[in-house]
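Handout, section B. The chain below has 261 residues.
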Amino acid sequence: MTVQKPKLIAAGAIVAVAVAAGVWALVATGDEPDAGRPTASASPVPTDPVAVLKAAAGKADEQPYKLTVGTGGAAGGDGTVLLWDPKAKRGLETTSLKVPNGEVKIERLTTGPDVYVRVTAPDRRVPVWDGKTWWHVGAPGAPAAKQGLDNTRLAGTLAAPAGVRQTGAREYAGTLDLRESAAVLGSGVRGVLGDRAGAVPFTAAVDEQGRLVRYRIELASEQSQTAQLDLTYSDFGLPVSADPPAADLVGEDPPANIPGA
């Protein structure tokens, strides 16, 4: 079974690899998330637009959060939801892709020391996409374990904005130099963006505590059709736990058609 999604992020080159990023079978337990809970450090809030965005990018590594990733398309389409604890390096990422006969779901589970991927397809023409087997694809950050779009590090692309202007209350716009961001956006980004990689438009918004809550990167396809990478950060302080799958559900030596293998 072949899944072709040419409309995805930047002519599909980025999201197609983002699909390889999959989801993480995470279980969130404990108290309800507190969206207003401050971070541990109470450093002075910057006012310069560039400083505000740099600080917001850094805050993404301070506490757990929920990240919703879309492509600027219609509601109910393809997308990814990530629940992530940046300090413990644990979480669950779920990517859903619409196909003619249903939906393909890719789950990527990071337990701290290990990464597992499970794929569920609407039919069984690809036996290893059975929705049961968790394929052990390696350790976090290893080249073979994470290919393409790395949703856990996307906020970092905002660390060096240029031409920043304030467009509203805690809202900003400017450009990004993504020429050195292949490790976060995937190797396909340079081919998609071409000469535009050095000055990619973006918009961003922060909350009262200076945390990044909305972030849009404007991408373009090879046909110069605009596409967006839309990020929404929420549920700050969310309790996140992610345990390894049961041993009898784990597969080693994943085949090539398992994302991240």
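Note. The helical segments are 13-21, 49-59, 182-185, 188-193. Compare this with the example in section A.
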